């Protein structure tokens, strides 16, 4: 061997060694992956994914699979030999260079192999950064011309960029099949796949039994998932043409990790998001989500309304097939028509419009995307087995035509985001319609004789009114009780406000002993007390500088006492003696919200659903204060310590109307005396003393952020970025990682999409410009519905307060005043 040759070999070995330490990223002719050899894994270029051998759960077997390389919790996203496990560590993965197939063998026995679509010259297998294992021909210039790819054969996981659906040219069906158990990746009978009905949709199946149906794509989302909408985490789309039909999604920021997984144990398909700060996967969304998602829970021709009790209702014009079974909540027999249709009279039939629906099962359906609703109706009317029609695309005014034949199966109603469906009815249904017994419906088509048309016209108006009413009542049931709040304003007649004697109060509070002091607000100390009859009270002893006369003061207190709402702390009376002014409130067992959310232990008591209940309660309370026509109250000092929790953790706002009581409420909305708390104050209020309902909305937005994050707006400064909580939230939002804001102590929440929605709402509330902020009624509506929200603009008080405050005088003052409540630029 010549000297030169030795040097060359050494060089080669060195190069190889260095490559080994970098890990393989491709397998070609001369390379192999072996479970016990030198090259055990293949790593994608950016290091996100790794292909290799693994042992699932408590199994003894080895499998070839792909997992996230950087995630400490082993998360396998794809398995090659699901059916043929390896019982030792002798598995080897090789490339057969003549066929271009990747072949997995155990001691010479082939356990699994790919099938290349054509014969390559120089095949190479690569693990892409998307987690897709592909085989391509190095000689083939087009990078995407794969001979084979693992994304065509998903297991239980639907990764970003995968196509869920059909390649119609080859008949390839990409669907999900769950593992049998965490120890056994072999395919269970639990699957989720797109079905090529005329109007295609996806079904979740257990064997041949349907468990859940996605609903067909309606241009915006699957008909059954109005909650899936534009969001900062991922984009999604549905593609349907003559070659392909699939659903896919992609991550907005590749540093966010998200996947969809089908799980046979829980019988759900979940979207998970990796939360870096918590080092764990959290559930973002789940289907099926609730009872009404159970396939055909209510049987044929019925509607599932989750906020109704019972949830199942026959469709308009239908009655229970078996009334007895129906009334005992066995809905499986479904509903039948009040009046049978007759094919001879088909052209006399009409349609009833049902709104906010998940469209029926499309197994027997027909689709024409080129025709409009009017033609759709005519086509449906003409075929007497057509039972319903709808726009197939609901974007804008709606377009396209879908028709349903036979029984209408698996319909549900949403509070918002559902679609209109027109259901066929015999003409007599309209003539004899007894509005008292019908749920909402609009007669959209009745025919021929003008007499019938006239009746129809009248009924249409009646129907519309009725539908409005019924719709409102649905809203009501789903906690959208905005209307009722608005209307339950203060009564006209004066109420007598109980006046407590000083001695009574002193006795109740143990002579204002320090032991009974439960708080110190900006307006004075608060004491706990017990009246002689056992009633527990909270007494606010106002600091004396009210600047108001006694009568004036009493009048204001009387007014405030009339504000009654379940989310406001009830004012029981007052005490006025000598210099003393005191307000007597109902006592709240659980103290204030800040003692929960900012406390490491107690914050764990508030899971997301409790927090959401608190958020909505606060919003309702503020809305009541804002919208009460006779006494519009701007709170001006909303903060976590001013939200009290009753024994069932229902929130009650306290300290409302204090500005009024202190005689500093001015109509012009500009006060020289500023009441409020750092970190909650809207910029225009803190710097210019301009207050409005929108400054309360700002404070509410901050409060919302605190409830979600468990961090104080004021005390929180991100070390690296010198931002307050708002600034931090804004930064995370802009980076596409808003979920990093979520409180770690909230535990395993299955509501990340709802939490994200709330973060979005909070950012809309804290926008710099008051006019951009939504009003409180919109805020409440946004919170409880899954409506699509506008992109938030830059928030106010982005950085440290001092950096943002404009006027130098107020800047000075803002930076030096005390912690709790500040009073600036006193006028008098
Ligand atoms: C391991 O990888 C190196 C190149 O990275 C290659 O030279 C070597 O042959 C491989 N070993 C096996 C057993 O495939
Ligand atoms: C592994 O499986 C092979 C073939 O099925 C069998 O011959 C062998 O004994 C098994 N080895 C072990 C360790 O179970
Ligand atoms: C490659 O596959 C062909 C066809 O299956 C087979 O005849 C051949 O032996 C394989 N080559 C290797 C190196 O395994
Ligand atoms: C299915 O979900 C359960 C509960 O979350 C989990 O323990 C189990 O590991 C999951 N199964 C698989 C195959 O991942
Ligand atoms: C009505 O539609 C069904 C389903 O598409 C079809 O089978 C039937 O032939 C149609 N009937 C008429 C009279 O067009
Ligand atoms: C994505 O996240 C990274 C890392 O957190 C961040 O630096 C980057 O700005 C984000 N990209 C975009 C487009 O927001």
TrEMBL record:
<dbReference type="InterPro" id="IPR036426">
    <property type="entry name" value="Bulb-type_lectin_dom_sf"/>
</dbReference>
<dbReference type="InterPro" id="IPR003609">
    <property type="entry name" value="Pan_app"/>
</dbReference>
<keyword id="KW-0723">Serine/threonine-protein kinase</keyword>
<dbReference type="InterPro" id="IPR001245">
    <property type="entry name" value="Ser-Thr/Tyr_kinase_cat_dom"/>
</dbReference>
<dbReference type="InterPro" id="IPR001480">
    <property type="entry name" value="Bulb-type_lectin_dom"/>
</dbReference>
<dbReference type="Pfam" id="PF11883">
    <property type="entry name" value="DUF3403"/>
</dbReference>
<feature type="domain" description="EGF-like">
    <location>
        <begin position="288"/>
        <end position="324"/>
    </location>
</feature>
<dbReference type="Pfam" id="PF01453">
    <property type="entry name" value="B_lectin"/>
</dbReference>
<feature type="domain" description="Apple">
    <location>
        <begin position="343"/>
        <end position="427"/>
    </location>
</feature>
<keyword id="KW-0418">Kinase</keyword>
<dbReference type="GO" id="GO:0005524">
    <property type="term" value="F:ATP binding"/>
</dbReference>
<dbReference type="GO" id="GO:0048544">
    <property type="term" value="P:recognition of pollen"/>
</dbReference>
<dbReference type="InterPro" id="IPR000858">
    <property type="entry name" value="S_locus_glycoprot_dom"/>
</dbReference>
<keyword id="KW-0547">Nucleotide-binding</keyword>
<keyword id="KW-0067">ATP-binding</keyword>
<feature type="transmembrane region" description="Helical">
    <location>
        <begin position="442"/>
        <end position="466"/>
    </location>
</feature>
<dbReference type="InterPro" id="IPR000719">
    <property type="entry name" value="Prot_kinase_dom"/>
</dbReference>
<keyword id="KW-0472">Membrane</keyword>
<keyword id="KW-0732">Signal</keyword>
<keyword id="KW-0812">Transmembrane</keyword>
<feature type="signal peptide">
    <location>
        <begin position="1"/>
        <end position="23"/>
    </location>
</feature>
<dbReference type="InterPro" id="IPR000742">
    <property type="entry name" value="EGF"/>
</dbReference>
<keyword id="KW-0245">EGF-like domain</keyword>
<dbReference type="Pfam" id="PF07714">
    <property type="entry name" value="PK_Tyr_Ser-Thr"/>
</dbReference>
<keyword id="KW-0808">Transferase</keyword>
<dbReference type="Pfam" id="PF08276">
    <property type="entry name" value="PAN_2"/>
</dbReference>
<dbReference type="Pfam" id="PF00954">
    <property type="entry name" value="S_locus_glycop"/>
</dbReference>
<protein>
    <recommendedName>
        <fullName>Receptor-like serine/threonine-protein kinase</fullName>
        <ecNumber>2.7.11.1</ecNumber>
    </recommendedName>
</protein>
<dbReference type="GO" id="GO:0004674">
    <property type="term" value="F:protein serine/threonine kinase activity"/>
</dbReference>
<keyword id="KW-1015">Disulfide bond</keyword>
<feature type="domain" description="Bulb-type lectin">
    <location>
        <begin position="24"/>
        <end position="148"/>
    </location>
</feature>
<dbReference type="InterPro" id="IPR024171">
    <property type="entry name" value="SRK-like_kinase"/>
</dbReference>
<dbReference type="InterPro" id="IPR021820">
    <property type="entry name" value="S-locus_recpt_kinase_C"/>
</dbReference>
<dbReference type="GO" id="GO:0016020">
    <property type="term" value="C:membrane"/>
</dbReference>
<keyword id="KW-1133">Transmembrane helix</keyword>
<dbReference type="InterPro" id="IPR008271">
    <property type="entry name" value="Ser/Thr_kinase_AS"/>
</dbReference>
<keyword id="KW-0325">Glycoprotein</keyword>
<comment type="similarity">
    <text>Belongs to the protein kinase superfamily. Ser/Thr protein kinase family.</text>
</comment>
<dbReference type="InterPro" id="IPR011009">
    <property type="entry name" value="Kinase-like_dom_sf"/>
</dbReference>
<feature type="domain" description="Protein kinase">
    <location>
        <begin position="512"/>
        <end position="797"/>
    </location>
</feature>
């Amino acid at each position: 061997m010549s000297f030169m040759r030795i040097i060359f070999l050494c060089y080669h070995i060195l190069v190889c060694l260095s490559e080994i330490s970098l890990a393989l990223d491709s397998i070609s002719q001369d390379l192999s992956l072996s479970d016990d050899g030198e090259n055990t894994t293949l790593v994608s270029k950016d290091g996100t994914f790794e292909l290799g051998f693994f042992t699932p759960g408590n199994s003894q077997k080895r499998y070839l699979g792909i997992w996230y390389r950087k995630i400490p919790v082993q998360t396998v996203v794809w398995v090659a030999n699901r059916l043929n496990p390896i019982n030792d560590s002798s598995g080897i993965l090789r490339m057969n260079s003549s066929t271009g197939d990747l072949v997995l063998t155990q001691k010479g026995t082939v356990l699994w192999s790919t099938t290349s679509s054509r014969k390559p010259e120089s095949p190479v297998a690569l693990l892409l950064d998307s987690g897709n294992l592909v085989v391509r021909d190095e000689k083939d210039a087009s990078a995407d011309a794969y001979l084979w790819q693992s994304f065509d054969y998903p297991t239980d996981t639907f990764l970003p960029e995968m196509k869920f659906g059909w390649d119609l040219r080859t008949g390839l069906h990409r669907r999900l099949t769950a593992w049998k158990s965490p120890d056994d990746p072999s395919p269970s009978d639990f699957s989720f796949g797109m079905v090529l009905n005329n109007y295609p949709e996806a079904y979740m199946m257990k064997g041949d039994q349907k468990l859940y149906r996605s609903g067909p794509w309606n241009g915006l989302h699957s008909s059954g998932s109005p909650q899936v909408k534009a969001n900062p985490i991922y984009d999604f789309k549905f593609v349907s043409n003559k070659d392909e039909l699939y659903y896919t999604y992609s991550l907005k920021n590749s540093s966010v990790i998200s996947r969809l997984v089908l799980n046979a144990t829980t019988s759900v398909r979940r979207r998970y998001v990796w939360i870096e700060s918590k080092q764990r996967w959290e559930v973002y969304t789940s289907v099926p989500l609730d009872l009404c998602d159970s396939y055909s829970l209510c049987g044929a021709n019925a509607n599932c309304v989750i906020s109704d009790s019972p949830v199942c209702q026959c469709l308009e014009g239908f009655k229970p097939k078996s009334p007895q079974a129906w009334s005992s909540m066995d809905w499986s027999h479904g509903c039948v028509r009040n009046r049978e249709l007759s094919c001879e009279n088909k052209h006399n039939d009409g349609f009833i419009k049902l709104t906010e629906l998940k469209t029926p099962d499309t197994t027997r359906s027909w689709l024409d995307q080129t025709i409009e609703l009017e033609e759709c109706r005519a086509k449906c009317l003409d075929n007497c087995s057509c039972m319903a029609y709808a726009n197939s695309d609901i974007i804008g005014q709606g377009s396209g035509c879908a028709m349903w034949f036979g029984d209408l199966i698996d319909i549900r109603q949403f509070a918002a985001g559902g679609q209109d469906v027109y259901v066929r009815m015999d003409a007599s249904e309209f003539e004899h319609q007894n509005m008292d017994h019908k749920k909402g419906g609009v007669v959209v088509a009745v025919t021929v004789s003008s007499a019938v048309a006239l009746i129809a016209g009248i009924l249409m108006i009646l129907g519309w009114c009725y539908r409005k009413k019924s719709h409102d009542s649905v809203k009501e049931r789903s906690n959208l009780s905005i209307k009722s709040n608005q209307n339950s304003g203060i009564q006209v007649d004066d109420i007598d406000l109980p006046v407590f004697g000083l001695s009574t109060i002193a006795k109740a509070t143990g002579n204002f002993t320090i032991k009974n002091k439960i708080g110190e607000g900006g307006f004075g100390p608060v004491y706990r007390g017990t009246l002689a009859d056992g009633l527990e009270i909270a007494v606010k002893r106002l600091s004396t500088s009210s600047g108001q006369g006694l009568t004036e003061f009493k009048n204001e207190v009387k007014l405030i006492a009339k504000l009654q709402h379940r989310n406001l702390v009830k004012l029981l009376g007052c005490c006025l003696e000598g210099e003393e002014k005191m307000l007597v409130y109902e006592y709240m067992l659980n103290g204030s919200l800040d003692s929960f959310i900012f406390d490491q232990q107690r914050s764990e008591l508030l899971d997301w659903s409790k927090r959401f209940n608190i958020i909505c309660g606060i919003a309702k309370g503020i809305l009541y204060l804002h919208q009460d026509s006779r006494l519009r109250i701007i709170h001006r000092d909303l903060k976590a310590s001013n939200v009290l929790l009753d024994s069932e953790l229902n929130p009650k706002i306290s300290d409302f109307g204090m500005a009024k009581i202190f005689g500093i409420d001015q109509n012009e909305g500009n006060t020289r005396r500023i009441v409020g708390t750092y970190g909650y104050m809207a910029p225009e209020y803190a710097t210019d003393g301009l207050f409005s309902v929108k400054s309360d909305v700002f404070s509410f937005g901050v409060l919302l952020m605190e409830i979600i994050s468990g961090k104080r707006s004021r005390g929180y400064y991100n070390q690296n970025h010198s931002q307050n909580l708002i600034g931090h939230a804004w930064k995370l939002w802009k980076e596409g990682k808003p979920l990093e804001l979520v409180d770690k102590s909230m535990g395993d929440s299955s509501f990340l999409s709802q939490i994200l929605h709330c973060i979005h709402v909070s950012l809309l509330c804290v926008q710099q410009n008051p006019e951009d902020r939504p009003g409180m009624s919109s805020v409440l509506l946004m919170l409880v519905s899954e409506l699509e929200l506008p992109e938030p603009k830059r928030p106010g008080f982005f950085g440290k307060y001092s950096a943002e405050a404009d006027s130098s005088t107020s800047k000075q003052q803002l930076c030096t005043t005390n912690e709790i409540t500040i009073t600036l630029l006193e006028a008098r």
